Each structure stands twice: as C-alpha cells, then as structure tokens.
Amino acid sequence: MYRALIAEDSKPILRNIQALVHATELPVEIVASASNGMEALEYIRNNPVDILLTDIRMPKLDGLALIEQAKGLNPQLKAVLISGYSDFEYTRKALNLQVFDYLLKPVERPQLVEVMERLVQQLNERHSTDKDLFKEIVDPGFHASMKLDADFSLHPKRVFIVRKQPFTPDLPGHQAGVVQDCFTQAYAPHTCWVFPAQAAGQLLVLVNASIQEKYPDIQECMEAAQQRLQVEGLEVSMATQVQAVENQAVPELYDRISRMLVEQMPLGRCLLLDAGSALTTGMRVNTELEQLTACFVDMINQRQKEKCEHRLRQQLAGWHSGIIRMAELEKFTWTLADAFARIAYHQEPEGRLKLAAEVRALFVQDSYAAFCEALLTWTGQCFELMYNLNKKSSYELFRQLDQYLQLNLYSQVSIGDLALKFHVSPSYVSRIIKKYTQNTFVHYYMRLKINEACRLIADKPDIKVKELAEVLSFGDQHYFSRVFKEYTGSSPTEYKDQAK
C-alpha cells in the first residue's frame, strides 16, 4: 500500500479528491492531509510518504516550493500538482521540478484515475527493481513474498552480515523476525531490514546510514546488536563496514563482506568484523595446517586406519582448545573426503555425490563434540568402505595397471606415474603387482618390454638392436642388450639368429 499526502486548503476540493482516490481501489492510502505548505512539509519530514498531491497555490509555502523542499527530503517522492486553468502555463514550468503530472480543477474521476494508475505502475516498477536486486542473495521462498516499503528507497544503508555460530543449536530465534526485533531495539529509531540469505544460517541486515549518529564507533554498533541477540540465546558472528551504500551496490558489497566473514570466522568464539578496516585481510595461508592435511591424506592412501583415527582424535581435541578458523576446518575435512573419494569412488560420480552429502551433514551438528564424534565415525566408515572395495577390486586394479603398462611399452612409465594415474600410493601399486605377478614392478614391466621386443624380432628379423632399444624407450643400446639377455638367456643378436 502506497502512502499519499494531500495538501489542499479548500475543504470541498480536499473531500472530493479523497473520495475519488478511495474509489479507484488502487493500492493507495491517504495517510494525511494538510491545509498549508509548511504543515505538509513538516509531515513529510517526520513520516514516510510515497505520493504528494498538492494545490499549486497554498498558504505559507506554495506548491512548487513544497515539492522542491519535499524532494530534498525524499528524492523518490512522486508529486502531482493540482491547478486551475489560469495556472496552466505556470504548471507546465513546474514539470522541470520532475513533477510526475498535474490535475486541472475541478478534478474529475477519469483524469485522476489515469494519472494515479500510471503513478502506481511506476512505483511498482521501482519497488520491483529494488526487489530484483536481492534475487541472488535472499532465500527464494522469502524473496517470492517479500515486500519493500516506501522508506526502503530513501536513504543509503549500512550492510551487516549476521552468521550463526558453527556447531550451535538451530533455535527459533534464528528466524528473521526475531533478529529483526533485536536490531530494531538496538538501533531505534533508525530503520532496519532483515532478510534470510540463501547461505544456510546467514542473514542480510540493512540499516539506514543514519545509524552512524547513534553509534559512531563500528565495534560499539555491532556489540549493541550482539547483546540483544545473546539475550535471545543466539550466538552469531557479524561483519559490516562504516561506509553506507545505495541499494544498487548492496549485492556486490554483500558478496565481499560475506566472503570475508566466512574466511575469518573462528571456531570457538564469536567474531565482530570491521570489513572496511585496512587490517582486514583474506584467508591466510596456514602452512602448518597444509602439511598436517598432507599427512592425513598420505595415511588414507596407505590405508592406515588405526593411525589415522588416533591422530585425528588428537588433532580435533587440540583444535577445540586452540584457534582454528571454520573455513580451515571445512577445507581440511573436504580434503580428506576427496582422498577417500579418489580411492573408493574412482570414476563414480554418484558415489562422490553421496560422499559430499555426508560431509555437508557433518557441519550441521549442534556442538563441536558431536561434530568430532560424527567425523571420526564417518572416517572409520570410509576406511571400511575402502577395505571392502579393495577385497573385491584389487584384481580389477591390477588388470587396469597391466592394461596401462601394455599400452605404454613404447614409453617409460614409473611406479609414481601409476600412483598418480590411479589415485593410489606407490607402495600400494607395488603390493598389488607383487601379489598377482610375484615380481616387483620393475621386473614385471621389464618382462613386458622384453616380451614385446621378442615379438618385434619375430615379425621383423632384420630389425636393428639399436632400433629396438630406441622404440622401447631404453635409451641405451648396451643397457637394452644386457636386460634382454637377463630375461631371455640370449643377446638380441643371438635371439635374431635363432629366429631366422
């Protein structure tokens, strides 16, 4: 419903306009009337108004001066002038003030309806544009029914990101309505808007830039809201910056501040982040954590279940008493998941999706202790899955390794190359080949190459030894001859003579 103010000193004309507006059944409510320009201006100064209908000739402050000063207070205000025929040319000049339109006295229903319908359509388009700004930010269900009042377009706003603290219960208080009440109480009389974001556990809060008058210090500003939220039992981290922005800039600023908050949120305490501070930086590179993560990945590749679980339990306990960022914990967990997926679900998209869903479920626990137990249980289950798959598929892996080596007899493949190709450790490749060939990797691969050399000699008895060495990637003819004799009992030349 749009709010309209009528400034008219003639009571009969005022009553006529009120009746006509009401009869249009448009979403317009006449919230006040004024008998002089100063009275109308004072009302606009203290109350939200979308539409001003004013007579051009008003006591104390004429219609044009009223519109000019009212637009200074509210640039989005839609103004309609009411004038007599004698004021026609004067009214035309008034359009330079961006007056929406004018009505000629006596105001008649068709004329008023036509002007008001166009005015309402333009207001709807403006509000729709404001709403569309938040389509990629706000929860889709909330966005579909959200309505922005007239005040929303009037002033620049301070952008706040409020995020539920990790591993805390999902309370009813986290709903937008409760948070709205907390911010309204903390920041009154400055207007606040609260929107549930698409990101789980996160809210976008917009506050009129005038909040700077009440809380010049940014930390005090956030603490005031945080204290209200804590009364409701809500543990949250929060980020904002001093600089206010126009509505069009909100989405970009939301993304930037949200990313900073997610990167810097600590696990064990609430954070109040000044996103505009020169000291605020992106996520630091934790070299120690990266090295630790690599150790855990290696334990997974080596199938060292007991060692991995023991180290993981110790590490989780250490993180609880120390300081680790939530983003770092998430990155660590997802890296473990990727290591398990490479082994258990190699080239199986459905299995990887299932594993990803399990990881996401870990982070919705109500406490850090519950998360730790869930992570340890999940880790054990992943190891068991790997063991079961290995029992069923170790021969399948050998078959794939053998096929790959057969296809690469004319190049040089190392055990490290195989480990990278099949996402397993070099020692595991070695064990698999030993199990099914009773040979080391080197001996088995050399056997395949020498068998291929024998086949080539049989097909082409005149082939040169040097050519054989080069085509099979031995590089050195003498080394090839030595290896050939080791596996066949004859030198290449002797073998060729026997084949003729």
Summarize the structure.
Residues 3-120 form the Response regulatory domain. By secondary structure, the protein is of the alpha/beta class.
C-alpha end-to-end distance: 101 Å
Radius of gyration: 38 Å
The global form is elongated
Largest sheet: 5 strands, parallel
Number of E strands: 10
Number of domains: 3
Structural class: alpha/beta
Q: Write down the CATH class of the largest domain.
A: Alpha Beta
Q: Which strand order does the major sheet show?
A: 2-1-3-4-5
- Show unreliable segments: none
Task: Report what the structure shows.
It is a single chain. The chain is of the alpha/beta class and 500 residues long. It folds into three domains: 128 residues, Response regulator (Rossmann fold, 3-Layer(aba) Sandwich); 135 residues, Alpha-Beta Plaits (2-Layer Sandwich), CATH 3.30.70; 109 residues. It has 21 helices and ten strands. A five-stranded parallel sheet has the order 2-1-3-4-5, sandwiched between helices. It has a five-stranded mixed sheet with strand order 7-8-6-9-10, sandwiched between helices. Helix 13 runs parallel beside helix 15. It is elongated, with a radius of gyration of 38 Å. The model has no long low-confidence stretch (mean pLDDT 87).
